[in-house]
Design a protein that fits this description.
This is Helicase C-terminal domain-containing protein. The chain is an alpha/beta fold and 618 residues long. The chain folds into 4 domains: 115 residues, P-loop containing nucleotide triphosphate hydrolases (Rossmann fold, 3-Layer(aba) Sandwich); 173 residues, Rossmann fold (3-Layer(aba) Sandwich), CATH 3.40.50; 68 residues; 123 residues, no CATH class. The protein is 31% helix and 25% strand. It contains 19 helices and 27 strands. Strands 21, 22, 23, 24, 25, 26 and 27 form a 7-stranded antiparallel beta sheet that branches. A 6-stranded parallel beta sheet has the order 5-12-11-8-10-9, sandwiched between helices.
Length: 618
């Protein structure tokens, strides 16, 4: 940046990876600070007096990739920006100008106005970035006949594994000298694609085996930075990546992108495909379909994909739960004044302050100049921002250690650790298999060693959804003349229990062995929405000698698969209630969906808010 602008101003990165010994120098000397909402939230705003030099002279706030601030993360970011504007104006007397850079958004002006609570925004729609022509290919894995149930079994038609198909495509790309990113929806899929691609290259291009790797969340900062640098400098030909590479990071010229399954929104698909062809050269994007109904829908009707409008970015800065968290944080940073701070936090400020007072978080300041309207933070936490997670990310993490050299391989969220690094699990890191030999719950550490095995492991588990109430979720405007059932929404407790795991052959997918597994249950609070299935429907199904519970379960998964067509969500954001043999209580006859993010992020209740889905209740 210094070279680009021919200037000697001090430009510094201030994020979670910045060494503590460098932070004091940055606060005292930096002219241009590159940071993120997380650091504003937990460091800059709570300790704003340490940043007095910067905040007193702050003239511009530039927010890149503004379209990524949506959903629950966007809600938190919007309130962090309000806190920043409040501190700047109320304490340091400055009113910085906002500049937003965005792409892949249907409503950029409205979105950023809500994001930063701005009255007006000028929109510049010139795309000056160099971009060549792009070929976009839809790739449906071929169909094969397969026998089930032995020699006397029936023949079924199945598609080839899309994971294997992507791996062959990935290997072809790097063998032809094309720099490539293979986008996968989960960390495990990234590891599998890398493993399979390396197996292919061992036969077809052995010198290229080490020219590809995985880039995803969970890796330690040092490893991530090295991968970014190697990709940018051309030392790597390609990576299998999650959406961590969808935006933001400059990885140099990319020739092709592969997309393993629909990523959850058209905006994300175009954003990923836009990583290639950024230097006025031709580029290629290949979308490889899974066998699920949503991917097959797009394969059979490409016009529905290419003609589908980009989704609107939505930010709900009035969510009372999130608003209460940030008002407590704001009061810690500087006393809340009802007279002036309503401009920042909206008309519900008074009621939320009252709620926080009743909970023992705020107290009235009787000695201030506006004694009746000034509120100080007195809550139990020394710094309330430390307890507010803005990305729905879990704080409790497990370390994965290579026993051979005591090297830290990864840090995994608690909920994922119980699925991935239990004792006896095969854990994958950069395409290499590790056997977990010890899983220490007290120290939150998994110890593993490299192994060469031809199987993978999969947990046997079940999840119970215990609904804690039942408020009607219909909107007042919903008019149905002949309701046959009810739709409801409320908080719930999600509890997962593990009772074993399978060892499964890689080549045949046959179960080789079944092992018992005892882990403590993992529980979290969330939100659920459900539709009661009327008794008349159950009787009609049973009269036809059909399986009622299996049918209702299939209907739940059908609903999960079509939701990304109507909402900005991914397949991993929502879950459904599944039949299991370990139920300990009677299960009501219902179709239930729940937020898979601890605390809930509002997606479940959005399902009922969509009028097109009300037809399920008629």
């Amino acid at each position: 940046m210094k070279k680009a602008f021919h200037t000697d101003i001090n430009v510094s990165i201030y994020d979670g990876d910045t060494p503590r010994e460098d932070r004091l120098w940055i606060r005292d000397n930096a002219r241009l600070l590159i940071t993120n909402p997380d650091m504003l939230h937990v460091s800059v705003l709570p300790c704003h007096s340490q940043f007095q030099r910067i905040l007193s002279n702050l003239r511009y706030i530039v927010i890149d990739e503004a379209h990524s601030y949506k959903g629950v993360f966007g809600c938190h970011t919007a309130l962090i920006l309000r806190r920043l504007k409040r501190i700047c104006s109320n304490i340091y007397g400055c009113h910085p100008t906002f500049t937003f850079c965005t792409a892949t958004s249907a409503n950029p002006r409205e979105h950023v106005m809500e994001l930063a609570k701005l009255d007006n925004v000028g929109l510049i729609q010139n795309d000056g970035s160099p971009c060549g022509s792009k070929y976009f290919l839809l790739w449906n894995p071929p169909l094969h006949m397969k026998k089930e149930g032995g020699s006397q079994g029936s023949s079924v038609t199945r598609r080839s594994s899309p994971i294997v198909e992507v791996s062959y495509l990935f290997s072809e790309m790097v063998q032809h000298g094309l720099r490539c990113i293979a986008f996968c929806k989960t960390r495990k899929l990234c590891e599998l694609v890398l493993s399979y691609t390396r197996e292919i290259l061992e036969v077809t291009g052995k010198e290229l085996v080490d020219s590809i790797c995985v880039y995803r969340a969970g890796y330690i900062a040092e490893d991530r930075r090295k991968i970014e640098a190697d990709l940018f400098e051309g030392k790597l030909c390609g990576v299998a990546a999650t959406n961590a590479l969808e935006l933001g990071i400059d990885v140099g010229h990319i020739d092709a992108t592969l997309h393993l399954g629909f990523p959850g929104s058209v905006a994300s698909l175009w954003q990923q495909a836009g990583r290639s062809g950024r230097r006025a050269k031709q580029s290629l994007a290949i979308y490889v379909a899974f066998e699920g109904p949503l991917d097959q829908y797009f394969m059979k009707s490409p016009d529905k994909l290419f003609g589908k409008p980009i989704e609107h970015c939505q930010v709900d800065s009035h969510n009372p739960k999130v608003l209460g968290q940030h008002i407590a944080c704001a009061a810690y940073e500087h006393p809340i004044c009802l007279q002036y701070d309503e401009n920042h936090f909206g008309s519900t400020l008074d009621s939320i302050v009252t709620t926080l007072k009743d909970k023992g978080f705020l107290v009235n300041n009787p000695s201030g100049p506006f004694s009746s309207t000034m509120w100080n933070y007195i809550g139990p936490e020394k710094n309330p921002s430390q307890t507010v997670s803005i990305r729905a990310i879990e704080h409790d993490k497990y370390k994965v250690i290579d026993k051979l050299n005591n090297r830290l391989l990864e840090e995994i969220e608690e909920s994922k650790a119980f699925f991935q690094v239990y004792e006896g699990a095969i854990y994958m890191h950069q395409g290499v298999n590790y056997l977990v030999e010890e899983f220490d719950l007290s120290s939150r550490t998994a110890f593993c060693r490299k192994v060469d095995v031809k199987y993978y492991t999969k947990t046997r588990d079940y999840t119970d959804i215990n609904v804690l109430g039942g408020d009607f979720a219909y909107l007042p405007a919903c008019k149905t003349n002949h309701l046959k059932t009810t739709a409801q929404a409320n908080s719930c407790k999600v509890s997962t229990k593990w009772f074993g795991f399978h060892r499964i052959c890689k080549s045949s997918s046959k179960i080789l062995d079944t092992v018992e597994l005892r882990l403590p249950p993992y529980s979290y609070d969330s939100e659920a929405v459900w539709i009661r299935i009327p008794r008349s429907a159950k009787l009609a199904v049973e009269e036809r000698k059909l399986e009622f519970r299996g049918g209702s379960h299939a209907a739940s998964h059908t609903l999960l698969n079509i939701l990304p067509l109507h909402m900005m969500c991914g397949a991993s954001d929502l879950g459904t209630e599944c039949v299991n043999p370990h139920e300990t209580r009677g299960m009501p006859e219902r179709i239930l969906l729940y937020d898979k993010h601890p605390g809930g992020i509002g997606l479940a209740t959005q399902v009922i808010a969509d009028s097109r889905l009300f037809r399920l209740c008629e």
